[in-house]
């Protein structure tokens, strides 16, 4: 409506202007017409009068002539009539002849020029016609017409012109408004339905008109164009996107249009544990779970995982589903049950005694048993079946997580050729020589290459993988595009550095830093001003916990002023305790902590506080906020999320991160104090530097690191992978189409 008014008002103004300009022209034109008519009329009257007038003149009856003229002027338009026999004589005329018209001056009213005379009665038109006889060779008949009727008519015609333009304006405006409204609504509805993929492309229904077949190709092209533009814009604007659960959800909704998203991981995001007569819900200590949980919340898909909680079977429905998170369910877990043999062979054996040490350079020998391998194959197949049964379409997007499922991508592709499998390998990938010791290396590589996208944390791991494939498989490797073509299928191998949710959940950082400092020190019986370091890990030999303790010992040796003034709290979540190597490692960690504490006993609080137990995430964050420093000393780590969590926890911009150079995180957080965990002296120096670092420097470093984690958060990690998958699906649709067109 506003649009219409915006158009109509100027239109009316323009029309009024035109009317104003046109009216005088019309006036002049009509005046000229009338004068020409009157001239003709005068000639006609003169011709008619000539004969009777000649007779009267010949009879010399001037009085009768005057009476005759009088009669004629009863015509209301003929104002006066007169006759001049010669310029020197007085005119014989009807009484109304104006004084300005006299015989001696008749030349003035003859010939071209203005013959109008303005009198008190109004304008008069003077017309002089020769009436010649032998007696009066210069005789002239004067006819004077009353022109006041012309002025009246001119007023009327001006009025009519104005009315005409007003009516025209109203009609044009009405037509404009009606057309504009109809077109706007129609156009908007059309565009809306077109953008929704409806309308022209939809089948006709009772309410909807049938689609015009000739418009369908145009509509399709338009839709495709719009989508391509959207995608291009998004790619161009990606740097501008503030990645959050909402923006991820919005982008995925637009890009994947509610497609079927399935996650497969060994570890489930929620375990149900029985404690006596009640069931507890536990969130496991796992970087992978920490990273994927927010994505599932954003996508509302299905997460397939090993049901390993003691009460897991009690809470699922008949399809082995349970809705989570328990307080506000938004997605579902599909639990897969494993026998003790399967778990022993697939999980503890091949995955954690074989692949885990194989991929980490932590100087623990991998153990490969054929029995474990058989279970690994069988369990991968079991999960592949679960994927097929959970898929709602023939082309789901399946996010396969980690080294437990190296064979799964190919198994899924064999069953669902249109599925898009994205595999993320959360741990490092070794160089080809190291990987070559695996007896089933070719099967593992071929299994992984069933993925459309294969992701690692760092470019270094990407390069190692591509080198390994190049060395051992008959595959075509493109090192520019980082793609591998194997068995006629293409896999894109890319770097997707994982991260954490940003901003951290409110309940994690809700408690003030000062309160965290006080409470944690009280809880651990430490003085209020005691310096505190913290480490949080699964109890795993790759995390370098012993190297960390060695560094603390070295600090106290090199800088004894810290004895009794500094303690290091190590939170270690028990992990894989079914494996001997892990049990031994736990024992070694306990022994070492005890030895160091023993050595410095009697000087106040112990240097090492070892807490081998599961902590709730909120408790972990409370430690992060209470500490002066956080020490991550992994011997080898894909990424290490603890480093990023510590940074996220410190909204006070204080605290120092000491970070092993062998973590993926070290590439992203150079403002941390980067150390070699094998170098105890260097680590001790870093500890001392952290404990004495001025607040301003702490703030500067922390600010930069927080900026990076905020920007490169887990939503970006997931979004980037899923957007790449969506682009890949679009490309393959195009290839399929052009293939069909040319075949
Ligand atoms: C693999 C890769 C990669 C630790 N103790 C407790 C606890 N945690 C949480 C931490 C953190 C997670 O566990 C550990 O994450 P990391 O990244 O450090 O390590 P991995 O478990 O080895 O994860 C690793 C990761 O996958 C992601 O791709 O970064 O390189 O090895 O979130 O806070 N959480 C709770 N209680 C604990 O006692 N609740």
Order of strands, widest sheet: 10-11-9-6-12-13-14-17-16-15
Coarse structural class:
alpha/beta
CATH architecture of the largest domain: 3-Layer(aba) Sandwich
Which geometry do the CA atoms define?
elongated
Strand content: 15-25%
Unique ligands: GDP-alpha-D-glucose
- CATH class group of the largest domain: Alpha Beta
Radius of gyration: 50 Å
The helix count comes to 23
The major pleated sheet works out as: 10 strands, mixed
Q: Span between N and C termini?
A: 53 Å
Helix content: 40-55%
Average pLDDT works out at 87
The CATH superfamily of the largest domain bears the name: Glycogen Phosphorylase B
| Number of β-strand runs | 23
Q: What count of domains describes the coordinates? A: 3
* CATH topology-level name of the largest domain: Rossmann fold
Uncertain runs are 196-211
Structure description:
- The protein is an alpha/beta fold and 743 residues long.
- It folds into three domains: 24-151, Beta-Lactamase; 261-495, Rossmann fold; 515-711, Glycogen Phosphorylase B (Rossmann fold, 3-Layer(aba) Sandwich), CATH 3.40.50.
- Helix content is 50%, strand content 16%.
- The chain contains 23 helices and 23 strands.
- The strands form four sheets. Strands 10-11-9-6-12-13-14-17-16-15 form a ten-stranded mixed beta sheet, sandwiched between helices. Strands 20-19-18-21-22-23 form a six-stranded parallel beta sheet, sandwiched between helices.
- Helix 8 packs across helix 9, helix 9 packs across helix 10 and helix 16 (545-558) crosses helix 21.
- Residues 196-211 have low confidence and may be disordered.
- It binds GDP-alpha-D-glucose.
- GDP-alpha-D-glucose (GDG) binds at residues 283, 285-288, 290-291, 426-427, 498, 536-538, 571, 573, 614-617, 620, 637-642, 645.
